[in-house]
Amino acid sequence: GEPEAVAAEVTAAAEAEAKPAPIDAEPDVPEESAPVEAGEPELPQVPAGVASLFLTDKTREIAGLEDVGPDLPMKAVSKELITGDIQFRGALSCFEPAREAIEAADYDPIVLRYNPDDTYGDGANFEVACTKETADRFEFEAQEALAREAAAAEAAAEAERNKKPPRARAGPQTIRPWVTDGTTEAEIDAMTIKPDSEPPVVITFSRLRSEFGRAINFGDADALDLFDSSRCEVRPKKEQLEFVTLTHLDTGVQAVPTVSEIEVQATPGPPKPMTTQTEPRLMDPEEARAHTRNGGELATFLKRIQNDLEGMLLENSVFNLYEDDLELLAQYDDDDADEGTGTEEIKQTMSFSSLTHSKGRKASCVDWKPSDKLALAVSCVEPHSFEERVEAGGQARPGSVLVWHFTDPINPQYVLEAPVDVHSFAFNPENSSVIAGGLADGRIVIWDTSEIRDEIMAYQLRRSKGGEGNSSIGPPVCRPKQLSEAAMSHVLPVTDIKWLGPVAVNRKGEVTKTEAWNFFATTSADGRVLFWPTELTKNPKTKVMEWTPSHECKMTRGEVAGILQAVSLDFIDLAGGKSTFWATGMAGEGAQCDFK
Q1: 140-146 — which CB contacts under 8 Å span 24+ positions?
Q2: What pLDDT was estimated at residue 448?
Q3: Helix, strand or coil for residue 78?
Q4: Pairing state of beta strands 580-585 and 590-594?
Q5: How many other CB atoms are found less than 10 A from the CB of residue 122?
Q6: How far apart are CA 180 and CA 297, in angstroms?
Q7: N or C: less crowded end of the chain, CB within 10 Å?
Q8: What's the average model confidence in pLDDT over 440-446?
Q9: Measuring CA to CA, which residue among 548, 552, 432 is closest to residue 499?
Q10: pTM of whole model > 0.85?
Q11: Cα–Cα distance measured from residue 138 to residue 47, given in angstroms and rounded to the nearest whole number
């Protein structure tokens, strides 16, 4: 039954406890706990995030750790170099034991610290920081060690400075005889300061405590006013002195010159009839041709004063030197008072007209020529309405820009030809032979008049001689040097053109300084601003030279939906690197924009 089985188990357990253990049996010792010898300190364990390695001289040379030592305890090595050494040398690499920890490191480069004392007792001479946190701790410990060394050095220096020098041992005193330098006893007695038999005079200065620290003002006062019987024993006596009072005397001196009346009678001599004959000096034909030839004195002189002389003649023709400005001003004031308005009419001084190019057209843009203050250019366009343009069926009509000079208001100097009407243009301020224009269909054109310079000079010379020679020959015509493609241009007529100065604008909108004026900007009612170089650029894809804008900027109305239909531009400070500019729209609004 069950009671008998339980009694048998209890009896077997009691016999097992009573049986002695074998003599050779050793007590059970855990495998992880190793015996520790008496008197030997327990070594610290390698902390987490640290790999303890022994690096040979060859490995230190490969990793660039030859200079690591007491003076340079830490150095960073790129992870790529360490993993490359592991892959190349395999198990022979000293970094192989910590391969997984180095590859899993969350930063680069890896920091290694010199361990000359074998802190962990594993025979390693380097510690590897396998995490960013461990590397920061290595750096912090290094800074603390440097701070402790600096503090110890400062304390040692301070102790050295405060160290008292040893006292010199006093030697035996020797009595030396008196040696005189030649001074007699009488002279010594005369130079000796002897106490005076009379008591010294004591003077006490006092002042109120509230006046402590203030400046002392000394002044004169009568002794009787300062007498105080409690402090003075003898009453002062006022001396009877005579004071001289300085008086001022007003004295004036009048200097009257001596005047004498003298008369002089000048009687002219009798008149005599006289005549003077001047004979002109004539040059021989050879000398005259030498003076008028190019490089001659007369030709050089006339060429030098030509512009100034023409300007003076034009001023004489425009202004009336015999008009009284004050009288005219009074007349204007009276007329304004009668009419009740303060406006003045602009007086027309000169008009330019060409029967061939400008008759029946309207001027759309005017620009002065920078190199000649008496020349200007005008672009004329057809004054067609929208219905008339629709009836024309979109046929392109050639346009032109006429360059006029004040010396000839009837015939233009030369004509800039365009495929359609030119709505805006601008001379290059640095090189007036280069002109940029904007067409009615949104395309951009560049003219270079240096190619027809000889024709222009020949035409002006023919006009200056009083005739055109052949009447069928008109002014020189300059055709476009460069014309943009419609896909790269505006979609509406160009409204304004501005040269940017000695700067360049790349595709990112960055402004850089250059030596020449090679960039200009155009705008249109399509709300875009295009930046154009004057030279062709190479397309990186097609490898073909083409003329395209280097940068494009779209203008919006800000918080209001829609685009800003700009009609004028003005850049603020491109030379200073600024990318801001002002734009005015068709509705009269003004906006400050940034094209970058």
Answers
A1: 142/73, 142/74, 142/113, 145/73
A2: 93
A3: coil
A4: antiparallel
A5: 12
A6: 102
A7: N
A8: 92
A9: 432
A10: no
A11: 12
For residues 564 and 556, the answer to whether their CB atoms sit within 8 Å is yes
Both tokens of 121, joined, read 């007792």
Using CA atoms, how far apart are residues 84 and 93, in angstroms rounded to an integer? 10
Average pLDDT over every residue of 195-224: 79
The secondary structure of residue 531, as a DSSP letter, is E
Counting every residue, how long is the chain?
Answer: 596
First to last CA, the chain: 103
Strand partners of residue 448:
434
| Helix (H), strand (E) at residue 126 | strand 126-129
Q: How far, in Å, CA of 101 to CA of 122, rounded?
A: 18
Whole-number pLDDT of residue 33 = 40
The 8 Å CB, 24+ separation contacts for 68-71 are: 68/112, 68/114, 69/114, 69/116, 70/114, 70/116
Cα dihedral: 580, 489, 494, 350 (round 10): 110
What is the band of 174 on the pLDDT scale with cuts at 50, 70, 90?
A: confident
Residue whose entry in the numeric block shows the structure tokens 């200009």: 520
Question: What are residue 396's DSSP bridge partners?
Answer: none
Strands 494-499 and 482-483: unpaired
pLDDT tens-digit readout, 547-586:
899 999 888 877 677 788 888 888 888 877 788 888 888 8
The angle subtended at Cα 582 by Cα 580 and Cα 588, nearest 5°, is 155
Contacts 24+ apart (CB under 8 A), 77-83: 77/109, 77/110, 77/112, 78/108, 78/109, 78/110, 79/103, 79/105, 79/108, 79/109, 79/110, 80/108, 82/110
Q: Within 13 Å of residue 84, how many CA atoms lie on the same side as its CB?
A: 7
Three-state DSSP state, 378: strand
Strands 444-448 and 566-571: unpaired
By CB neighbour count within 10 A (0-12 exposed, 13-18 middle, 19+ buried), where does 442 fall?
A: buried
pLDDT at 417 over 80: yes
DSSP 326: H
Show Cβ contacts of residue 372 under 8 Å, excluding neighbours closer than 6 positions: 307, 405, 432
Compute the distance between CA of residue 305 and CA of residue 477 in angstroms, rounded to an integer. 28
Q: Which residues contact 276 (CB under 8 A, 6 or more apart)?
A: none
